[in-house]
UniProtKB/TrEMBL annotation:
The keyword Membrane applies. It comes from Astatotilapia calliptera (Eastern happy). One of its GO terms (cellular component) is membrane. It holds the Pfam family Gpi1. Keywords: Membrane, Transmembrane, Transmembrane helix. This is Phosphatidylinositol glycan anchor biosynthesis, class Q.
Length: 584
C-alpha cells in the first residue's frame, strides 16, 4: 500500500484527521490536509461535502494523524475511536514516535460484519503482513504542475484509464478549494496544508485584475472597428487584395490582429493548452513591442534616420554601377566564352535601359526618402516584427529591377528549355499527350522533321547566351531572396517561439512535468519506508515543440530537390509568404 503524503504537512502538523482521496483501481491514498482537534465530526462531514461539490474530487477522511506531545497521551486512543464515526473500509492510523523521523501506520480494516482487524505496517516475528510506503511530495509544486503524457502513435492507448501518478496530480490540482482554509481563519475548523501559514496577497495583482476588464473591452472595440474598416468593399478589390496577401507588413498586421483577438477574448482559458497559448502570445507581444521601442529610440536619437537616407542614394548608385559593369562584361567575351553577339547585344542593351529607368526613378524619389524612413520608423512602436516586415517590403521595392531581370531571363531560358525538350521528342518520333499527360508515339513527315531540325539547331546555339544571363541574374535574385528569408525567419521566430513556456521551464521547471523520480528519504527499523517524489521537467526541445505558436509559414513550400529542379528548368521562385499556409 502506498500513501502519498504532503512533506510539509504530516511532518510538523498537530494531531488530527487526514483528509484526502483513495485512488480508484490502486491500493493508494492521497493525503491533502490535516484537520486539527478540537472539531465537531458533523461539521467535518459538512465541510468535506462542500469541498466535494466545489472541486469535484471524492474527498473523504482517510484516517488519523498522531504527533505525540506531553499531556496528550489519550489523544491517540481518541483518534482511533473516530473510525466508528467516519465509517471506511480502511482506516489509516499514522503516528510518529519521539526521536524518530519515520511514521508508523496501522491499517484498520472493517469486514462485512462490522468487526475491525488491525494490521501494522511493519515486520513482526519475521512476517510482513502489509507493507506501507509513504511517498512525500511538495503539494504546491504538484498542484501547479502539468503532467505531460508520453506521445504514442496508438490511438487506443488514449482510451485507457489514467495511471496512478496522473490521478495523484489531478487530485491535488482540482483540490484548490480545500487549501483556502488556513489556521488564521475564524471558522470552527483548522487545517494544515501547503498554504497553512496564510495566503499571500498582492495589491498590484488585484489592481491589474480589476483594470484588465475595461482594457479587454477597449481592445475588443478597437479590433471590431479595425475589422469593419478592413471589410470595406474597396479593400476587397483584386489589386488591393492581391497586394495585401503578398506584402509582409499586411500579413503581420492580420497576424497580430488575430493575436489581440485571442488575448481580449472574455472566455477564460480553461484547458492548460489554451492558457499556455495565451501566455506565449502575451509574452511574445510584450517582447516584440519592447524590442521595437528600443529600435525606434535608436533611430530617432542622434539623427540616425537622416544618416541612413544619405547613405541610401550612394548605395543605389553603386549597385547600379556594378550592374552596368556586369552587363558590359556579359556583352563582351565573359570568361573567354564565345557568345552569340547579336543576341548578346540585344539582351545587354535591354537590361541597361532598365537600369537607366530604375536609377532615374530612384533619383526622382530621393527628396522623399528621408520622410518615408521617418514615418516608416514609427511602425517600430507596434513591434520589431512590424519594422522587419516593412524592411522586407522596402527591400523588395528597391530591388524590383533585379526581380525584373530575373523574370525576363527565367522566362526566356524556360521557353528555350521546353522548346528543346519538345523538339528532342520530335527527333525520336514521340510527342507529349496533353489529355493523358504522357509521352506517346507519333509519325512525322519530312517537312516537319526538317523544320524541327532547324529550330532545334537555332535554340541549341542560342541557349548558352541565354543561360549565362539567366545564371547571373538568378544568383543576384537568390541573394535578395536569402536576405528576405532571414528577415522572414526572424519575424517568424519572434511570433512563434514559446517565450512564456520556456520561461516556466527555466525558472519554474516543475510547472511542466514529464515524469517523476523517487528518492529514499527515510528507512528506519520499525517504521515504514519513506520516499521523496521529485518532478522531472520537460526537455527544452520538447517545450518548443509542444508550445510553439502556430504561424503563417515563411519556409519554402518545396523540397531542395524540387527547388533545384525549378532553377534548372527556369521556373520562377517566389519568396512571398502565403497567408493560407498555416503550420502548427
Amino acid at each position: 500500500m502506498k500513501d502519498f503524503s504532503v512533506r510539509a504537512c504530516c511532518n510538523r502538523a498537530e494531531s488530527g484527521l487526514l483528509v484526502g482521496r483513495w485512488i480508484s483501481g490502486h491500493d493508494s491514498a492521497v493525503v491533502l490536509a490535516v484537520i486539527h482537534y478540537p472539531f465537531i465530526p458533523g461539521q467535518v462531514k459538512q465541510y468535506i461535502q462542500q469541498m466535494q461539490a466545489q472541486s469535484g474530487v471524492e474527498l473523504t477522511v482517510l484516517g488519523s494523524w498522531s504527533l505525540p506531545k506531553e499531556g496528550q497521551e489519550s489523544m491517540e486512543s481518541f483518534l482511533r475511536d473516530l473510525s466508528t464515526i467516519f465509517p471506511q473500509q480502511r482506516w489509516l492510523q499514522v503516528s510518529r514516535q519521539m526521536g524518530k523521523m519515520g511514521f508508523i501506520c496501522e491499517v484498520v480494516n472493517r469486514n462485512q460484519n462490522g468487526q475491525e482487524t488491525q494490521q501494522e505496517a511493519k515486520k513482526q516475528n519475521d512476517e510482513e503482513e502489509e507493507k506501507v510506503i509513504f511517498v512525500h511530495y511538495e503539494q504546491r509544486k504538484v498542484m501547479l504542475s502539468q503532467l505531460h503524457p508520453t506521445e504514442s502513435g496508438d490511438p487506443d492507448l488514449n482510451t485507457e484509464p489514467p495511471s496512478e501518478l496522473k490521478q495523484v496530480f489531478q487530485t491535488v490540482a482540482r483540490s484548490q478549494p480545500l487549501f483556502f482554509l488556513d489556521r488564521y481563519d475564524d471558522g470552527p475548523l483548522k487545517s494544515t496544508h501547503w498554504q497553512s501559514e496564510g495566503r499571500e496577497a498582492s495589491i498590484i495583482v488585484e489592481l491589474l485584475k480589476q483594470a484588465s476588464v475595461p482594457l479587454c473591452v477597449l481592445i475588443s472595440w478597437l479590433l471590431a472597428l479595425w475589422t469593419w474598416l478592413c471589410s470595406i468593399r474597396i479593400f476587397s478589390l483584386y489589386p488591393l487584395r492581391f497586394l495585401s496577401s503578398k506584402l509582409s507588413t499586411c500579413v503581420q498586421i492580420s497576424y497580430r490582429t488575430e493575436h489581440m483577438r485571442t488575448l481580449s477574448s472574455p472566455k477564460p482559458a480553461i484547458e492548460h493548452k489554451q492558457f499556455m497559448r495565451k501566455g506565449n502570445i502575451l509574452v511574445s507581444f510584450l517582447v516584440d513591442v519592447g524590442l521595437g521601442v528600443l529600435l525606434m529610440s535608436w533611430l530617432y536619437r542622434d539623427d540616425h534616420i537622416a544618416t541612413l537616407a544619405n547613405m541610401l542614394m550612394p548605395a543605389a548608385d553603386h549597385v547600379a554601377k556594378e550592374l552596368e559593369e556586369l552587363l558590359q562584361w556579359l556583352m563582351g567575351a565573359p570568361a573567354g566564352l564565345k557568345m552569340n553577339r547579336a543576341l548578346d547585344q540585344v539582351l545587354g542593351r535591354f537590361f541597361l535601359y532598365h537600369i537607366h529607368l530604375w536609377i532615374s526613378y530612384i533619383h526622382l524619389m530621393s527628396p522623399f526618402i528621408e520622410g518615408i524612413l521617418w514615418y516608416g520608423g514609427l511602425s517600430a512602436c507596434l513591434g520589431l516584427t512590424f519594422a522587419l516586415s516593412l524592411l522586407s517590403d522596402m527591400v523588395a521595392l528597391l530591388t524590383f529591377h533585379i526581380y525584373c531581370f530575373y523574370v525576363y531571363g527565367a522566362r526566356l531560358y524556360c521557353l528555350k528549355i521546353y522548346g528543346l525538350s519538345s523538339l528532342w521528342r520530335l527527333f525520336r518520333g514521340k510527342k507529349w499527350n496533353v489529355l493523358r499527360q504522357r509521352v506517346d508515339s507519333c509519325s512525322y513527315d519530312v517537312d516537319q522533321l526538317f523544320i524541327g531540325t532547324l529550330l532545334f539547331t537555332i535554340l541549341l546555339f542560342l541557349l548558352p547566351t541565354t543561360a549565362l544571363y539567366y545564371l547571373v541574374f538568378t544568383l543576384l535574385r537568390l541573394v535578395v531572396v536569402l536576405f528576405q528569408g532571414v528577415l522572414h525567419l526572424s519575424v517568424d521566430f519572434i511570433n512563434s517561439f514559446p517565450l512564456f513556456a520556456m520561461g516556466l521551464r527555466l525558472f519554474r521547471p516543475y510547472r511542466l512535468a514529464e515524469g517523476v523520480k523517487f528518492q529514499v528519504l527515510c528507512e528506519e527499523p520499525g517504521t515504514a519506508l519513506h520516499l521523496l517524489m521529485e518532478i522531472n521537467p520537460l526537455k527544452c526541445s520538447t517545450v518548443v515543440q509542444l508550445y510553439r505558436t502556430p504561424t503563417y509559414s515563411c519556409y519554402p513550400r518545396d523540397s531542395w530537390a524540387a527547388l533545384v529542379k525549378k532553377l534548372f528548368v527556369g521556373e520562377l521562385i517566389y519568396p512571398w509568404r502565403h497567408k493560407s499556409t498555416k503550420v502548427d
